Amino acid sequence: MIRTRKAAATLLVAGTLGALVGLAPQAFAKATFVDANCFRAVGTSYLIWDGMSGYDNWYDNHLAIGLYYQGTRKDYESVSGDGWNLRAYGDSRTGVTGGKKWYVDASAWNGSNPWIGARCYVT
Amino acid sequence: MRTFDRRALALLLAGAPLLLAWSSGYYGQPPPGVTRLALGAHWVCGWLIPLSAAAVLAYGTAARPVDPRVTAAAPRDPRERWWLEHGLTLASATVFSLALTLGQASRSAEPPLALLIPAVSGLVVAFCAAQIAVTRLRLSPGPAAFAALAVTALPVLAPCLTPALRWAAVDPTLAAWMALAPGTPPYPIGPGAVELGMVGPGAVGWPVLAVAAVVAARLLPPDVSAIPGGAHDLD
Questions:
Q1: Residue A92 burial class via C-beta count within 10 angstroms: exposed 0-12, middle 13-18, buried 19 and up
Q2: Is A18 within 8 Å of B96 when comparing Cβ atoms?
Q3: Per the CB < 8 Å rule, is B96 touching A17?
Q4: Nearest to A92 by CA among A110, A108, A104
Q5: Going by DSSP bridges, is the β-strand pair A85-96/A116-122 parallel, antiparallel, or unpaired?
Q6: In angstroms, rounded to a whole number, what is the distance separating the alpha carbons of residues A40 and B185?
Q7: Which residues contact A68 (CB under 8 A, 6 or more apart)?
Q8: Nearest to A29 among B25, B33, B98 (CB)
Q9: pTM above 0.80, yes or no
Q10: Are the beta carbons of B98 and A18 separated by less than 8 Å?
Q11: pLDDT tens across A10-35, in order?
């Protein structure tokens, strides 16, 4: 019985220490300043999400998505026709321990190829 | 009965700076769309945990000299007894690692399974490497730790650093992030998207190979007295 209790106590201490070690370093993390701009270069075109830097600013802010084609920016809502088209995008906002998580998925194509896609996270 | 030498825990200090740098997001260049926190969490769980476990367990379980007469008179083969004598240590290391992994997942926004699977696979390899180094090769603490570390590094590090070996990675996500040139999407999304798998051939194959090596080391030679070495037992 004593050995069982000792073993259980050892495992409990190990688990607690593991959780502390796993979480503690990120108290110093630059999480609130993670740059969420997605930047993908494919040829001369770029797919960029802009204005997402700053953890404290994104929540309840307007989602700003810009699509660049040969140096000219277009808003995703008006992109169609020539050049790159924004095919799909989405965002979700869910809570995670110690803060909030945000991500956006998007992709674009010209004709049928090539794809450019990105997944941004802010934690 | 041999006990775990707690002095081996001092080896963890060697990995502490890496833990701090990686899991704080202060180091590394992730591909676009991936945060440093996510990349660091994969480094911690896929690399640091298995490598630290291998070194600490090999050093700690090899550090207590036992009179060879006691070894010879013990009821079970020492290669089997290692698992029983250090069962609590192995369980503690596993619980510690899993809790650490969940902590990393909660703050990096990575799916917990994407970190748990490589951590567990790496731990199995680390345990087996330490067991072989200590009981089959009968290395003294320092060489045992180095040997276990080197053997564990092969499956967890090499595929991530060598694009040609990417298919053998224990952590497919980390290997993909490290193999692709900056600016290249790690995965297409949208219609027809191909998601990165969390389990690759390496996550299953390396642990199976490690367990097979433990079995082979138990069977060959069948008699423990035929194993050379063990001079440190007489210290």
A1: exposed
A2: yes
A3: yes
A4: A104
A5: unpaired
A6: 7
A7: A45, A46, A47, A48, A74
A8: B25
A9: no
A10: yes
A11: 999 999 999 988 887 666 654 333 33
